[in-house]
Model the fold of this input.
Amino acid sequence: MTDFQLLIMMPMLVGVVIFVIPDSMKIIKGLIALIVTAVTLYLSIIVFRLPSGAEAGLYSLQSIFLPVIDKFMMLKVDGLSRLIVLFIGLFGFLYAIYSISYLDRSQTSKGSVKAKIPPYYYSYYLITLGASFGVALADNLLLFVALWGLLGLTLYKLIKGHDDESSATGKKTLILIGASDSILIMGIGLIYISARTFNMSEISLFTNTKIANIAFLSLLIASFTKAGAFPFHTWIPDYAKDAPASTSAFLPASLDKLLGIYFLARICTGLFHLTQWATLLLLIIGSVTIIAAVMMALIQHNYKKLLGYHSISQVGYMITGLALGTPLGIAAGLFHLVNNAIYKGGLFLTSGSVEKRTGKEELGELGGLSKFMPLTFIAALVFALSISGIPPFNGFYSKWMIYTGIIQFGTGTGIANKLWMVWLTLALIGSALTLASFVKLISGIYLGRRNEQLGEVKEVSFLMWFPQSVLAVLCVLFGIFAYNWVIPGLIGFTHVGNANTFPGLWPAQAVSILILVSIIVGFIIYWVGTLKTRRVSDSFIGGEKLQEELSYSSLEFYKTIGTFKLFGFFYEKAKRKWFDIYHLGKEFVLGLNSMLSWCHTGILSTYLMWMILGIAAMLVILIV
Amino acid sequence: MGIEIFYFLIFPGLLFSGIIGGLISWADRKITARVQFRKGPPILQPLYDFVKLLAKETIIPLRGSVTTFILAPVFALFGAVISAVFILLPVLGIETGFAGDIIVIIYLLNIPSFTYIIGALASGNPLAAVGASREMKLILSYEMPFLLVLISIIIKSGMTIRLSEIVAYQAANGAFIGSLSGIIGFIAIMMCIQAKMGLVPFDMAEGEGEICDGIIIEFSGSILAFFKLTKYIMFFALPALVAGLFFGGLSLSGINILWSVLKVLAVVLLITLVRNTNPRVRIEQAMKFFWIWMNLFAVISIVLALMGL
Done:
């Protein structure tokens, strides 16, 4: 077998084989999954190091049984797909480590985690992994869509309907993803009509004919639903809330983002040439996604749902970056994609750790955990700072690249170019709002006073904090060494932050050293000062004695924002699911149903009347 | 690497901006005292304050996250000093690797406020949490007009986001304060700076009368000394930024020193007068003020800048 066959087929085959092992032997399944993911990580590194020229990149996933279909099995390795493959491999391995301990019942776990673990978790996990590699590598659209559809199915199987709410979430996910998949198939059909080929490397369409436009929009819908962009995002917050944390980290936070945005990048940079109207459309969707999702995140009380909304909001940045279409913008979008997968996956892992140890899902029931789960706290803080774009972490670097890209884009002549200040403002404000909602998350879970009802809380086991720490270290390294190593090495783009050719300048390494310097200076000042002779005392609250009802919950933080009429209006509508395309679709279908049931009364005389009316109508038509 | 550390610690970083910031803080207090018909403090008072606080007892909250609480002020000081470096080097016209990317400056200027929020929340004090919540909402309020004014500056200076080039552009074409859009943008950014400094009328995060200094209620001794030092540095960095954006930058050669001092003092005087003649507003009033009025000002400034006024 070649490396490619191993990479794609082996996880899927092993996944199918371990269906026979009963779920009570989870540890064995976990170890098998760990070995398989370790091998695929190794293989994905090999694939990453393959030469990736335009011609050299084509390989065939030779079928063993049916040589006839070989031409449908073409794979392509270029700069984009090898990046995605590398990170799928990395995340697959890290989350497999995490899953072993997360799924383990003998570890002390409280509350709802146990109920959320779906049956045959590892089988679907491995099938997902193999299919994802396939999607990222496939050059043939038919192979691509087959594996893409499989991912929708495993996504559904990785959430367990343990109560009414989670069953509804599973159904919603399946229907939304399934609908977008069928739209994708239609789009691919239209592409075949225009381009007469299924190979992505041979397709290059202009969005100036009707068919090409519809195909473009269909593919866009598929990628947006997978990645979660407005208005096709609504499955993500619910899924993040009801699925096990390892699944949320694996699919909606990492793999679905990687693949959805990968497909978007293919659409924007290869399959289609964007007109200025298409660029405008993408930028509008990107900006609306950023703001709408982050505004919803601000008012959430369930921390996993909050993270779900953020994983939508971040997609807006990637879409904005890719939509710019400039080399800087595309590099920025892809770098943000990688960074987002790292810190968002990490955030879901830390939230899973908290859930495992406390059994609570609401911010209001937690607090003061930083003392008891220090490693998880530090990791979560790093992720939160990265996603909020605090320098010098990786999230700042990619956001800064996007902003710089927007300003550079603003010197162009198109309609979207002229509106650069709108995109820049919305992206920057979105970043401030992200910071605000992560202040709420961090303070609600880790800072402040500990909720006495929590009982004993311990740090999670090595298998759970190790993947979190790896991701946190990556956040720091990617931020500091972005310019010299990470961006040229991963994305193959070298000019960013160049003193002469690019508008912005951000000396990340120098600043990082200065941070170390300032910590040393800080300790010197503390040493000179009186920190040695400190006294510990309870909080001063104006002379009052502290009572439970006096504590100010972080949930109340942003209540004031809802009191503004405009925001209050949108929040109220959002609560009634006006922006949920699934809900709207459901209402529409059920509305049609009620019209039909109005006709089908079961009363014979009514039917007879319909028949007579029909005959009369036919007669009129025939005579006239 | 040595030169960056020099910039950071000596000039124009920690030492230089700390001293100048202390002097500005003294000027602010002196003017305030004169407005209120008092004598005012001696010129070394900021230094006395700082040294005195280092010698005072430090009280650590019993039920909080101690490490986070102690480290937050260190990062706040870092944020203030690094933004001072990024602002002052280009504004003073010193050619270095720090060209003063405006977007970077926006982010760096938020670090002090943000770390105080984290520090306040780590203390576990409910009044500090009220203050932190207000501070965060204040950031959300002034961030947008601040950015919009900077956009109008970017448009006026021919789509450059480097502070050094913005200063150079003004040297060639006249300071931006001389144009209509410049004046309107200046008004908006002054209000943003008032809020960034946490001064009256936007000091609701501290609100000593109602929430006992809110966000800094638990800071004491050396930790409070950091807070003071950070405030001094911000009191220099922000007026210097305004001088760079609207008055054509500062200079340290010959007679220009006098002009530079006057430019900074003019901005400080405005800040001080506003803070002495206004009462504190409530947080939602401040939000409304920034979201509606200051954004409107900033947008008008952008439109005028696009028209070339």
User: Anything to note?
Assistant: Residues 312 and 591 of chain A are 29 Å apart (CA to CA). The beta strands of chain A are 58-60, 74-76, 205-206, 272-273, 535-537. The mean pLDDT of chain A is 83. Residues 581-623 of chain A form one domain.
